[in-house]
Amino acid sequence: MDFHRPARQHPLGVVILAIQFLIKGVQSFWPAIVGVSLTQLDWMTLLLIPFGILLGVAWAILYYLRFTYWVEEGSIIVERGVIQRERLQVPFQKIQAINLFQGPVQQVFGLTGIQVDTAGSSGSEFKIVAMRREAAESLRLMLAEQGAAPDGTRDPGKEAMTVEAGPVDSSHAYRGRTMVDLDIARLVKVGLTQNHLRNGLLGLAVISSLVGGLEHQIESWLSGLPAPITALIAAATVLLIVPGFILMLLTGVGVSLVTTVLRYFGFHSEIGRQGVFMESGLLRRNTFQIPFDKIQLTDWRSNALQRALGFETLRIRQAQAGDAASGVGVRLAIPAMEPEHRATMEEVLYPDLDQGVVMTGRPVGRLRWLLWFAALLPGMAPFSFWSPWAAWTFMALWLPFTGWTTLKRYRSFHLTVYRDAVVLQKGWFWRQRVILKMSQLQGVEWKRHLLLERRGVGHLTFHTASGAKRFSYLDKQTGFRIRDWALNQLHVNP
Amino acid sequence: MEVTVAANPELDLSGIPRLEDIEFQTVSAKYRQLRLTTWAGFQVVLAAAWLTPLIFIKVTGDEDLSLFQAWWWPMGLQFLMGSCWFLEEWKGFPRRGYAVRERDITYRTGWLFRTTTTVPFGMIQHSELVQGPVSRWLKIKHLRLFTAGGSGNLRIAGLDEEQAETLRAILETRTRKV
To answer: Binning pLDDT at 50, 70 and 90, where does residue B6 land?
Structure first.
């Protein structure tokens, strides 16, 4: 397929663009739309609806006509913009991720979208919303092949290219050995082990915002009842605590299952000679190819239930656009990673993990007391609304509980240094294990305040192209040794 | 059965270059004047904001001082914060400095809150010399170093013009070499 001539998207892209513009328009002007719909509607107001649709369609046609893309001398060039024309030139080497996606509208028309992300400024990324599948695949293959050369950031591991990954099709450097394949049973397992408490609270927040006037209606209903019955109902609400908690948990489980199915339906991932391939999603079907050398860090997360079932979630972080503090970045997750999947990934990305530990670090004991103090503060809250004896009873139980949990948490902090990798581990119930390569570090920072300095304690921060990772309350000697080692390895393992 | 033995030699960590052994270059003394002037200006503006109502009460002869009672809190807070800021400027400035090694640059700053950041030359995407109107008058420049993702960005402020140009030249040479 020839991409060297300026080309437009597929003509049906006009429909997709029009729908996208209309959705964006509704999202931008929803307060005005709600306000107008609450007033008495006359035919003049109703005329605004077809006018808005026509405007959206006209804008989509203009956008479609003025959007062209082509490939020229190691770069992909995109010209776009209705009022203000923009010419975007993205060198192949700067491309971090190429993602194919199929939203519901693309699925109806049998088209595919392609999204290109870079590590440059937040504006230097683009989407082509409508392409034929074969054209999108060809473009992705070409961009991936041309961009395989090392760029301004260091290559994390050429050794990754030499991994034996089973039968590999040379045209599919990202396909080979199957990693995680989610069938319905596994999908349910992933859904059932999510954070239901958080999802339940989120679900309840959405429900309560949707039925905002419910409280007022209950109050007006109660005001019409005789006083003894109102008092009886008020006393009976205590009995609703347990069913209410169960309802929240059920809501949480429901939200977890729905979001898991939406996100991970038909999840399939493979590992090849040059990177990782994955596709997933129910309504919006995404396909990702991540070259090994673009992976900045891996973040392994699990809760106690997931560990009991023998799996964890891998989050892959690539270089992020713009300011690291903005949190904008390419983040991909592979759920249900079992020990053998983890071993395969680590073997490919961090071969030095097998070569022995160089040094380790643990936080100083002060962190344990700080964690305990922070955990005790919520325990003070009952003093403001319970009777003193009830609050003190609660505190008597809260104190040993938080003491035990913070001890477990404190013991979970580990910093392990290998030849070219650093592993930061924390968390007891929710465990997190971040692995980063020293050869990809953008900087190392030692930070402390005056009091910590006097005690010879500080925080060690590793800056990567995908954000900073900090290990706190490390003693000075260990911190300095790890910093010196990291800076040294950064230069000897370019 | 043949047993594979993994090579696992002991590593000698004593030869690793130590960052704490290096000597730091201080930044321009004129930058200290600029920072202290900024501090003083800020304090004067804030103090004026607190004192204006006092003068107003004195002039109008209004006996109702109930509102004035609460004035001590922001003034006290300003005094406390201002003192900490002054201490940070006074004691922290001599600590402010940079050090260049063969392959990286380190910048140290702060007294109350101390930070030592090292950025390898190989990771610097581009650098920038910044000079505003006041800096131009004082003949100082600020050097900004940008890394991928922005997390490791560094700003070395208050360099003498000559010092800044030399540092920029060193960076250019070293970045190319790495």
So the answer is: low
